[in-house]
Amino acid sequence: MYDVTVVLVAGGAPSTAVAPIEVFNSAGILWNELYGQPAHPLFRLQTVSLDGRAVQTGFGLHLDPDGCIDDVGNTDLIVLAAVGVDIASAAPAHACLYPWLRHWHRQGTWIAGACAGTALIAESGLLDDQVATTHWGVVETCRRRYPRVRWQPERILTEANHVVCGGGVYAAVDLSLYLVEKCYGHRIALQTAKALVLETPRTWQIGYAAEPPNASHGDERIAQAQEWLFRHFDQPLSINRLAAQACMSPRNFGRRFKTATGQTPMAYVHQLRINVARQLLESERRTVQEVSGAVGYGDVTYFRELFRQQTGMSPQAYRRRYAIGPTQKTVLEGLDSEC
């Protein structure tokens, strides 16, 4: 069982605190209860504020914590709720939070924040030289205040150096489901999402949802090439085209790309495309051929072969196992037996 600490802060959106509480408290419990199975709690959750007192959110809702940050004796995950849009006032008001975050990060604890809560993580220095996202409305403020952070507001989720950031207010849901998957795997995350009638985690605020593989490293030129790939993965791609985007020779690009990511450029492209295909098969009603075309493969037979290599099953079998469809919706009377 993982210990999760949700840090309540004043002035922000209450859903950025409540959504993680609901997701983590539902994992292993709600799905099982709906299907008449024994509940197996997977997370032990506590809520804290800076001083242990109730906080008032930006919408007038008061949230009472279990204690203060200094009461935390053990935690595997820390999730920060969002502050308001006035980052210049909110950041210094939470000064005691930053050494506490750095302490737990050094212990190996994962740190997560959604919306403007990512500014508090940036203020602690944990995002220096790392990729991060935040709400589009505060990103320019964050860029000025935290110039060392590689802000990518077009992404809903980012992960770097044991820190996960969510872009908007409701990205708190995506962030929480993403962390459930990291802890217990894809099937538990999907069950949690289905039980709460939520979509599976998205990671982009534009375009398709896909978790970019191996995106955290120190090669800026390769990182820029990856960012281009995330937006154009469905187009015809070759090593020559990718190298040209990076203004490098194909040989040098291939060498640096593999050093940075651990994969050849085209292996990386295939992994990115299959990740997108998984999301489409889980959440949309497109045919396998339509999914194949949507992720950049005109040859559906080749797509099926690649999909099986990376997931261990065919696209059809994957959809039957993981899709959120009409046959898997839970009703209060007469639970559907096909799931």
From TrEMBL:
The keyword Transcription applies. Keywords: Transcription, Transcription regulation. Residues 223-321 form the HTH araC/xylS-type domain. InterPro entries: Class_I_gatase-like, DJ-1/PfpI, Homeodomain-like_sf, HTH_AraC, INH-QAR. Transmembrane segments: none annotated. It holds the Pfam family DJ-1_PfpI. One of its GO terms (molecular function) is DNA-binding transcription factor activity. This is Transcriptional regulator, AraC family with amidase-like domain. The lineage of its organism: Bacteria, Pseudomonadati, Pseudomonadota, Gammaproteobacteria, Oceanospirillales.
